[in-house]
Amino acid sequence: MTVVGILGGTGPAGRGVAVRLAAGGHRIILGSRDPERAGTAAGALAQVVGDFVRGASNAEAAHADIVVIATPWESTMVTVRGLRESLAGKIVISMVNALAKDGPELVPLTLPRGSATAHVAAALPASRVVGAFHHLPAAQMEDLASGLESDVLVVGDDAAARRAVVELVYTAPGLRPVEVGGLALAGAVEAFTAVCITVNIRHRAHAAVRLTGLE
What we know:
Blueprint: E1 3-7, H1 12-23, E2 27-32, H2 35-49, E3 53-57, H3 58-61, E4 66-69, H4 73-82, H5 84-87, E5 91-94, E6 99-102, E7 105-108, H6 116-123, E8 128-131, H7 138-142, E9 150-155, H8 159-170, E10 175-181, H9 186-203
Parallel strand pairs: 1-2, 1-4, 2-3, 4-5, 5-8, 9-10
Antiparallel strand pairs: 6-7
Helix pairs in contact: 1-2, 4-6
């Protein structure tokens, strides 16, 4: 059992990851800038996964064994820089997507370092930063009875940290980890999230990414 902290965990994406990892037997600290809000969200999730989830501040969630960043891009850098010391030496999973609304569609933002994950890695030089959990339909993630079957693409320059994240994802029901490669690929992975969300909006669906031909 691993203790997983989720920064910004009260949003749909963070709650979905919390439910799936809790269902895999891990303890979850659902973090937020507002601990009271985190407690309320954790109480709702506890009806699904029992006492595997509790609410706390982002600062407390940062002390977990593995930490997931589920904050909006706009607040990500302020959040991680403020917790740099607590996150040192840890595996930090960025699921952040830098996207903008353009009419009825979402489009990826062009970031100076090429990806949100790369920006997180630069801000946390003492942490082991990995990108994962980008393409998942949040509503289906939170609903364990949804029948979701989705791949989770895992990128990062620390090979041992990538493998640890792969092992973590394997425990989550409905998810299959796919180890992709280094951090240079994070931008392509994150940008495809805009395609997934736009497809789901256009078709009023909850489609997920699934690669064929893999064992």
